[in-house]
Every structure is written in C-alpha cells, then in structure tokens.
Amino acid sequence: MENFKEKLLIIDFGSQVTQLIARRLRELNVYCEIHPFQKVTEPFLVEFSPKAIILSGGPASVVDESSPRPPMAIFEMGIPILGICYGQQVMMQSLGGKVERGQGTAEFGRAYVNSEQSMPLLKGWFDNGDEQVWMSHGDHVSEIAPGFEVFGTSANAPFAIVANLSKKFFAVQFHPEVHHTPKGAKLYQNFTKLAGFSGDWTMGAYQEKAIEAIRAQVGDKKVICGLSGGVDSSVTAILIHKAIGDQLTCVFVDNGLLRQGEAEEVVTMFRDNYNMPFIYAEEKELFLSELEGQSDPETKRKIIGRLFIDVFQRHASAVGGAQFLAQGTLYPDVIESVSFSGGPSVTIKSHHNVGGLPKKMGLQLIEPLRELFKDEVRALGHELGLPDSFIGRHPFPGPGLAIRCPGEITRKKLEILRKADAIYIDQIRKYGLYDDIWQAFVAILPVRTVGVMGDSRTYDFACALRAVTSVDGMTADYYPFSHQFLGETATRIINEVNGINRVTYDITSKPPGTIEWE
What we know:
Rossmann fold, 3 domains, five-stranded parallel sheet, 32% helix
C-alpha cells in the first residue's frame, strides 16, 4: 500500500517458493511486495522507493547470457540487499564474482551449514553447532565478488553464506523461507532489523490506511460490492462501509453454485447484523443454463466471471449509477493468476475476480484486500469486529461448486454434491475438527462406478473428500483424519445421498496439487 513508507521489494526470478519469502516478512510486520524482474526498472525503483531488497531464487542459470538479471541500479541505492539461491548467484555475477555450472557441487534437499565467522545477520544461528538448511541449486558460486567475505559453508557450497558488511549486501545459497530451514525466520528477522524496519505493518494500521485510500478513491461516488458470503468479500464490504457508509450497496448473487442453505445464511446474517444497503440477486437460471454441459475448468471460470460482471453491471445502474465495483481479491489470487510475458512464472489458474473489468462495464475496481494473505484478512476481520464464528469459516471459492464438479456440470450433480458436502461438514463439526482444518469440501468426480446395495447393482458417482491445513492457502497439507472418521463419513454419504456409491479421500499436498480440484 502506497501509504506505508517502510516497504521491502522482493524481486522475483521465478522460484516456486517466492511467496513464502513474503509470508515470512509479513509475519514480522514488515510490508513487502513481490514484483517480477522484468518490471523492476530504474523508474520503478524510484517510485517504489524500497527500504531493502530481496532477490529470490529461480530456475534459470546465470551462466546463460539470456538469464534474468536485476538492474545494476539496485546495487547503487545504498540499501541492504539479500540474495537467495539464484539471487546469490546473480548478485555475485553482477558484482564481479563468478558462477559455474554443477560439476559435482549441486545440492538438492537437506544440508548443513558450518559457521566461518559471526555477523549480525546470523544472530541466533550456530548457537548449538551446524544449522540445517534447504538447498536447491545446480550451479554454484566459484568466486565471490570483491568486498565479500565468507561466513558459512556447506559440503557442496564453499560460499553458502557471504556478505559485504560495509554495503550491507548479504547472500545465501539456501532457502531460508521454507520450513526445512528451521531458523530461516530468524535470518529474515535479522535482515529486516539490519535494514531498519520498525515493523509497522499491522492490521490496525492497515485498516486506517485502507479507509483513507478508499475515501480518496471514491469521493462522493457510489460503490457496489460483490458479496459471496465468504470471509474475503464480507471483510471487503464491512471495511468499505466503514469508510463511506451508505454510498456502498452490497449485491449478493445466488448463482445456483452455493452450498446447502448458504444463500439463506448469508442474507440473514447481513440483513440482521449490518445496517447497509443490500440486494439479493436470484440468478440461478442465468448461471446454470450457460454452465450446463461445460467441462473445461478455464471455460467454467470465464463464464462465471462474465456473468457476475453482467449481474453487477445491471445492479450498478439500478442503484443510481455506481461507478465502482468492490471485490475481495487477495494477494494469492493475484500471484497465481499472473503469467509474466517471456518470464519464468506460469499461470496456475485464472481467478474469476482477477484481470480487470470489461471496458464496456464502465466501473472502476476497488480491491482493498489485494495485498493481503488470508490470515491477514482474518486479522483485519477481528479489527473490524466480525464474530469469531464468521471469521473462522472455511474459504469458499468465487466459482463455487462449479470447480468442485470436474467435468460436465449438471443440476443433478450439483444437488448430489450439496448433500454430500453438508454431511461431510456436519461430520467434521461433530468430531470437533472444524477449526483445525483450513478448508474441507467434497468434489463429485466425472466417473461412475459399479457398486452393490441391498443385493442390487448400482452404477453411481464417486466422490472425493478433501481437507487441508494451511496458513495462507499458498501451501497446504492434507488433514490426517482417523480411519474411524473416514469410514463413518463414507457410510453416511453412501447411505444418505442418492447418486453416490463410492467415497475416496484426497491426500495430495499443495504443491504439487492445488487445494481445489479445478
């Protein structure tokens, strides 16, 4: 957010764990942004005005002439810089050192770093001997740049930790951001202290700045907010209402892709607890008629996004010419949806609320949560006074049940899915596990299987149960249910839901899978 003066810039060279660097920094109350290396030009640096810079890892080889590089101007700004893995190598190569290809010095996985000498960046490290780290590099630094000294070595990395203390340039060959480097968070904490960050990135401060920014952007104009009933859109609505009051109208769209009883629950909650203009848009037929028979996940998402825009546009006119549309877009949505032209990152999936608005709509976007991770949104919800029972609700995707129905969408499959999902969540609550789980849902699979019920043959759908633990949705592990829970839940679903005769449990982590099935 522009109003935060203490900003750390993460230059992304395509590492799959760059977002984890941002998470570690946000946990230290340090505001940071990830930007692809192509975007980081000298004019960008002047405008962004970072207090420090971190160079991420990446899949390229600095030995190649076409490899991504940061502008040399970053090394002349007089601010601390930390290079991670590829970031170390590109720093060394840029400042007069030398990097060579593998030749027996590659390291992948757990490794141990020995201390050569102490420095402030390593405060709290090596107190009990060697430190475990996570390595993932093929190339290696064979000669450090002038002015740098060695502070740590590993079996295959003689320059595992190097620094030019006078310039506050630091570089490590390993990845401190992953949990396989147990003291990685301490290293980031030390770096931000060396850079002089005061840790002013709190949700209380963010709320104040966000309200100022909303008022400045909106003025006396009207805003409509696409309300799904999930935590993100609800926090967005309440934050904007606090900023501009009845200039905001919330539009809740019932698109026929909601969970069982969800529309009634959301409408009741907002109409009974929040005194703000509220429109209930019953649009099941519009969405389901266009989605019926569609099987491609990207097509589904784009249809849903287009129809949401159509509905919002209609209601924007109805409320007297709203000029802004508010959405609960989060930072992970932005990260996963970006594909840098010619760059190292790839689009994981399109998010229905990322990518701008059709020009014909004539509305400007307000996305006050665009810079936040999910746990930060929950913290902001607490600041805004939302009840714990609501803030703790599991995330629900904007495209709803459409992406929990891989393959062709039909009304019958959606109804089966709703019933199975309701039983699953009921079981999770019955066992007292709801608050231990980040997200849980049922996916109905695009296959039918043979079964036997009451001595008769059945040929019905299979479903998959999904439950994960996570902090921010960027990485996730499956929840280790007991066999008793899984067996009891499968029996209930098969007995109580007409149309399912087989239940499976998805034990895929993220990565390599995503949390949702599509």
